[in-house]
Amino acid sequence: MRERQEAFRDVRLIVIASEGKDTERIYFKALAHEYANPRVHVHILERSEEEQNCSSPEHVLRQLNNYKSQYDLEADDELWLVIDKDKWTEAMLSQVATQCAQDKFMHMALSNPCIELWLLLHLVDASNLPDEEYRRWMENRKKSKNADPYLKVLLRQKMGAYHESSYDTSLLIPHVEKAIARAHLLDVNPNGRWPQELGTRVYLLAKSIMCY
Questions:
Q1: In DSSP terms, which residues pair with 165 in a beta bridge?
Q2: Which residues make Cβ contacts (< 8 Å) with residue 17, sequence separation at least 6?
């Protein structure tokens, strides 16, 4: 009787599921292209039509768990949950963080308050913001009901143009090493489950994609 041959995969797989349906996909697709490595494959999960508005941390985690249940993972593969802090309660985030901590494949890259912070760090050093400006970044408020939040407005000013579904990554990717260094500096409690102050753990995912 012939023995079944096991498939061998000599590529580390990085799977990303994100709260936003466009912003993160655009960025990580560009980063993976710029730092293409034959030993690393980056796969960004898309949301189905009926799931377009399902952005809660629990749903993003469910996407990764569904992927994990369908495919065999190797020991060094990584599943990344990319979410924001701003809209979600501590209890909700704590539940998701606990589940991630119990799974060796799972990693949580949370931005406090939002993913725009990570993009801004490519262009701005936020380590020594004046107190009032720091408060504006953390609160990330809208000037009016129909206006964009503060960090989105600031990012648009810095880039010249910015929309979640369309922006020029060539203005950001060349500065990714600066962003990593700046985010690392903001991460004053790296052993915490997520940044409690202004900060983003997306730099850890970027380093993994870039093989740093």
A1: none
A2: 45, 60, 61, 63, 64, 67, 79, 80, 81, 82
Residue 30, CA distances (Å) to 10, 84, 169, 210 in order:
23, 20, 7, 12
State which amino acid sits at residue 15. V
Positive or negative: CA dihedral 135, 175, 55, 14: negative
pLDDT in tens, 90-145: 999 999 999 999 999 999 999 999 999 999 999 999 999 999 999 999 999 999 98
What is the pTM for the complete model shown? 0.92
What span, in angstroms and rounded, lies between the C-alpha atoms of 82 and 61? Answer: 9
Instruction: Round to whole Å and give the CA distance between 45 and 29.
Output: 11
Distance CA 105, CA 140 (A): 32
